[in-house]
């Protein structure tokens, strides 16, 4: 056969390196770990990446960053990474530039996942401090980065333990103190804040509740430790975690480190704290930092212990603690601030924000008898719900929603049918391979998996078809069902043993109710469904 008559290449689109655009496009990514680092850290990293990209002949298409985000935070929780991936999906990016691979992350699982994702799109990786990096090397480098992260954490903790034992404050600046380079501990007493600390301890020791103390401080405009409004939990803290102002042993001249261990949830990547064992807690005396007298401190600790023991004995199983205790439990909101409207005293409802933060948090400070509030709600229900007009509106809205659901079910049916058709094609191809090749275990397992998936989709389609086959209830039937629910609610209300069911029916009928202050109304308040409180 002569050279001129040789068979040509197969028809199709042939891609060669010379076909690529002369302008290679790159995206840049930067990250720094905590809000204690220099805010310019990301900009400095991006500057290095710009120089590296231009040096390697790339045009910069976009820049992304995650500021004050740990490298062990899940990729899905990092806005910069999410935006970078969305940009890369357009298909016109050739490379990613980072300062170093630890900027991508310090969790081996995440790094392996992101390496697969970008490599599958033929996007190359460059480190400004190391040149081009093969994606298959990234998991190994990532494992080392994770090891370094954990080792750094261990060394930091060892350093903080040592600092505590030497009488130096190892962490942040507590309320009542300020930084002092001249002091051995690194802290000195702030005279203005110290007076607030003494006042809080004295008032609590005298029997004043933390909520009342917080409310008074807010009314007086005293900034909280974080600069905002005071909250009762800021003062009392948590007994298990041994935190809060009233449990801070620095106020009696004792530095304590390690009361809580900080870990990361592997599922969410969130940082969580757990109370540490007593053996892991270290302390040292630092008498120059004492603000609160020993006798006042002891009275406060006695009251805290007594309060905790009292409420600990009243604990209930978790499933019972979340059940509604009253008819309106979890159905009310404050019309003033949008917070919860809950039981705040003996048989009285009130705004939870006003209770914990005082008038500075919400001016709706008036409380209402539970029985009067329930009576008001029930009277309005009888007036509004038990009318043909309301039943007609309810039936119309429900019927419209059912019709909308039916339309979406049609879309879902088409999607299921499309998936089943695609699986049928895949199964046919697998069967063809089994007829021609030796039936390997992997091939048989794949066939079984696809057949199982098809059976599940077929069952879902049948269930959907069954639902579509049922005729929609008529307008009259829905209105009759609504009237039956209202009558059932009235029966349950008269029987205190069925509060849970009555609460559920009420939630279904009216949703959330907003309690709004109104001087002209009886008892000084009005009640309305939350979605109608701003109408008219």
TrEMBL record:
Alphabetical list of SUPFAM superfamilies matching this protein: Resolvase-like (SSF53041)
SMART domains: Resolvase
Domain Recombinase positions: 174-310
A Pfam family: Recombinase
InterPro entries the record matches: DNA_bind_recomb_sf (IPR038109), DNA_bind_recombinase_dom (IPR011109), Resolv_N (IPR006119), Resolvase-like_N_sf (IPR036162), SSR_resolvase (IPR050639), Zn_ribbon_recom_dom (IPR025827)
Residues of the signal peptide: none
UniProt-recorded name of the protein: Recombinase family protein
Organism listed in the record: Sedimentimonas flavescens
